[in-house]
Design goal:
The complex is a heterodimer. By secondary structure, chain A is of the alpha/beta class. Chain A contains eight helices and seven strands, in the order ααββαβαβαβααββα. By secondary structure, chain B is mostly beta strands. The chains are: A alpha/beta, B mainly beta.
Amino acid sequence: MPAVTRRALLTTVIPAPHPLGGRERIQRQHLPNVVLTAHTGARVRFYDDLVKDKKVIINFMYVKCEGICLPVTRNLARVQKLLGDRVGRDIFMYSITLKPAEDSVEDLRRFAEGQGVGPGWLFLTGVPADIEHLRKALGFTYADPVEDADTSNHIGMLRFGVEPLTRWAACPGMGNPEHIARSILWDLE
Amino acid sequence: MRPVRFHPPTLAETARRKRRQECVDAGLTRRDMFKVALLTSGGALVGARGASAQAACELTPCTPGCSPPTIPFVDPLPIPPVLPARALSDPGFLIPPNQQPSGDPRDARTEPHQFRERFPPQQFFISRMRPNPNFRFSDNATNLSRIGPQLVWGFNLGGESAGDVAMTPGPTIVSRYGTPIVVRRFNELAPDSTGFGRTEVSTHLHNFHSGPDSDGGPCDPVFTRFFGIGKFYDYFYTMARAGFDTPEFRASNGDVRETLGTCWYHDHRVDHTAENTYKGLAGFHIIFNEFDTGSETTGFHLPSFPQFDIPLFLADKQFTPDGQICFDLFNFDGFLGDKYVVNGKMQPFLDVQKRRYRFRILDGGPSRFYQLFLTNPDNPAQSIPFWQIANDGNLMPRPVEITSTRLSVAERADVIIDFRKIWERFGRPARIWLENRLEQVNGRAPTDVILPPGNPANVVLEFRLVGPDNPPDASFDPEPVSFPRASCSPDDCVFAPICLPPLPSDTAASPTDRIRLTRTFEFERGNGQWTINGELMDCTRFRFTVQRNTAERWILRNNSGGWQHPIHIHLEEFRMVRRNDRPIRCGNVEFSRKDVVRLGFNEEVEIVMRFRDFRGGYPMHCHNTVHEDHQMMLLFQVQDTGDNLTEP
């Protein structure tokens, strides 16, 4: 049974739905409102509570990571110091676990404490399917499924942006913290 | 070296097959689909939204396959107007551009123009970057009902009034060697709701030999290269050839063999170059000289500008199903659009006389590569020759007869198409297509598969042969002197005196001809981060220092698996000497000066380059602008004393 008729395909001008603005499009496609739990124990919704109307820095990590997670987290701790008291005031940092089944809230809390994480920076976990949805929506994926499934080679970029202005960029998490802080401040002003 | 890790994108492939199946289910033949231009290069459907495709496009509306269907070849090719020069009394110059530093708070420049005293500016331009809220990608009523007038960014003709509307590509800047110029660029952009575009800008003049102050680079440890709304920046171009501050060429104001022709300007705001250029902040800058004069009755007798010398700005754009131009800021691979746009219109046509034309073809990105063929739609099996005379805007030592040419992002090819010969030799065709037959299914790289000819969906531009059979044509015929009709040699110089400069060597007597150092650069990707020699981009420091007025050999190696990269180096054009250990010999279109190196899968290219005249910082970066924005880049500097880092 054809899904559409030949005639329909050739002749129909598809009625334009109400055009979505860029901000709504980005929200729908890239910033899902999944429920997450922070290392502080707080239950939050990703879009509504963490990203909407905010300046944010987002990355992925997991606790028992032998690769880049620790160096990136240490880098981010230095970036947090460079950004000073703006973190928690008008800039918010989010590190999301790639292994939600493994990383409990308590694991994340200990990890955060061990890295000298200051206020305004949350480590987040959630239902595995939601985390996977979030990872893909934020673009932290490889086109090759084999590569994509290899968590040890996960994407170490930092995504930073100003949500209401649809201003989004990314830089390598392993970079020089001064360079990272400068790039972020150029965009997060 | 790492093993090849290239795997075709299974997701995109599945979606493509699914959409194709829907057409089959709907009883559409391939011919039907072409008729309404429903198929893209890989055979993917454009804009036919069956149930599953519609659902996919609802979720990810900024994806190839989601643009509405449009009718090709209904819009004449726009030709960007030439930016008019302005008198110093022009009201746009509240601060005269021949005065520096200005001290005005709107002046964004933080460093002096190098060599300005030696080359006092004699010609002045203004251009204002503005939103254009009513830009039309087509003027055809049906197309407009699907992709309506909408907001893009562009450059205007310099006027202050609102009636001086911004266009994209921006006006073509035409300058001449020997006449130094200042271009004052205003940032009059504004935030909007399109979802992309950064309102800070830095305008790079691609390929020109500029000081760091006017290069329009991305970032610098000390100076700020980009500027925000309400500011302007004076870009000063010496209009002198490279080498003007070396003992050999001081008297002649540079080496005539370093003459540049087809340059282009584009935004280079660090981290946001792809979206800003895609949104419209780009245009051509053409340089003429006493040999390549712009008139077919003088000098090299190349087809006359502007009637027969036409720039073609190739870009691929993506629209949402409701016809809004969009860009995916969350994509790390590279960004493809499913609509070909040339000089601002979708798949336009151009009426041509049966004579020779010079086309300056530019791959304007952001991520697509092209393999351009001429196709006779009535007989696609014909193999139609044309002649490439310049590579990246640099005249080649001998024209090369080709039946296709490949361009990666930012590369240019100047070609001569002889429509009279086509008319006479290929059965008097009424139409000839400029067709991109290179398959590319994601932003990482083309697949290197050449698609069959004669698919309207792959056509970039339709030429329509009109007028008398024997119109006047005083232009140079490259055919008899072109390779392989004529033999070639390393000493060729069809366009004398714009010959190839001598290759720097390890033993040359002059410091500017002697290779002081060999440096190796390995481009890799680890944990999704771009590295060069294992190091990441850093705007706060220079990775290495090249000694001014010397030459170096650089080995560029792509170890990134299933990716291809157009590597661009600012400051001076260079020569590609070897590709994968094989010498690049005469007769190859890459036997030329170049400013972009196309690095294919796991390829290695050896270049030699001189670093003359200016002091200060420049980038080397991937010109797949999505890779570039994710910091596939390094900064180096040129100073009087260089370092000896061989793997910086």
